[in-house]
Amino acid sequence: VVNSPIWGPEIQRTRDYGATWQGSVESPKLRGDDDKVSRIWHVEPGRVSEPDVVYAGAEPASLFKSEDGGDTWSHMSGLAEHPSRPEWQPGLGGLCLHSIVTDGSDVSKMMVGISAVGAFGSMDGGQTWDTLNNGVRADFFPDRYPEFGQCVHKMLSPTGMPDRLYQQNHCGVYRSDDSAENWTDISKGVPSRLGFPIAVHPHAPRTIYVVPEIGPETRYVPNACFAVYRSRNAGKSWRKLTRGLPGKHAYVHVFRDAMTTDSCEDAGIYVGTSGGEIFFSPDSGDHWELLH
């Protein structure tokens, strides 16, 4: 994704592992002349059963779909037509749709996460949408549990478990076991409720990783000690992982898409910081080393 302040956003693709790149024939666009896509936040491949389908989340809070491998894009306007749309408010990073979760076994089912609006789900391929924020806090509102307005920072689902979802929120870490109909707060054991990234082990759907930060006004890791927190039991308990990570003077922030895993048997975990470092664990988080 190229988000140019002059030429606007563009999604580029490669078919030769990065040797050459090609832009879309038609980039994601909204209908109205005054409604312009200012930034592409996330690109998500379609299901295995639909290899030419790609989804893109953009700002202002919009969802796009390509059915030709990224050549052309259509606006999935059903989300923008949700009755709550006039009341959506941006987070500090803007009104961004940054998380897209598809169900590998059901082509009609998908979910998205929007800052600072919350989670939404569709059961008809994106034509209509419902709010999916039951149990998720919004501490910055008088009503701490509104229907929408929560600031989800990242949401994803383990491979092979479409009903299980996790999210790192502005106000905690959460798990759902029923396709986001209800959420359970799993923040106990993590030093703060705020963080941006969350990752799931590729072979162990109960193993998750987060990087907590001090809070909304102080966005770096607690005590300037860089640590990744891992749970092996779907958030019931957490372990602080620090071996090989900077233990002091680490005034760093980890962005929402700056942590991921590979698919090796003993999974590698990767974390990038706002300072430009990339840390790598070759053993599911037990030990870390500076990759770049």
What does this structure look like?
By secondary structure, this protein is mainly β. Helix content is 0%, strand content 35%. The chain has no helices and 24 strands. The two termini are 22 Å apart. The relative contact order is 0.08. The mean pLDDT is 94.
SSE layout and pairing:
Layout: E1 2-4, E2 8-10, E3 12-13, E4 22-23, E5 39-45, E6 54-59, E7 62-66, E8 74-75, E9 96-103, E10 106-115, E11 118-122, E12 130-131, E13 152-156, E14 165-169, E15 172-176, E16 184-185, E17 195-200, E18 208-212, E19 228-231, E20 239-241, E21 259-261, E22 269-272, E23 278-281, E24 289-290
Helix/strand/pairing category: mainly beta
Number of strands: 24
Query: Radius of gyration, Cα only, in angstroms?
Result: 19 Å
Q: What level of helicity do the residues show? A: under 10%
Strand content: 35-45%
Give the low-pLDDT segments. Answer: none
Let me know the average pLDDT. Answer: 94
Main sheet attributes: strand count, strand direction, barrel closure: 4 strands, antiparallel
- Give the distance, in angstroms, between the N- and C-terminal Cα atoms: 22 Å
Strand order of the largest sheet: 5-6-7-8
Shape category: globular
Number of helices, counting only DSSP H or I runs of 4 residues or more: 0
Order of SSEs, N→C? Answer: EEEEEEEEEEEEEEEEEEEEEEEE
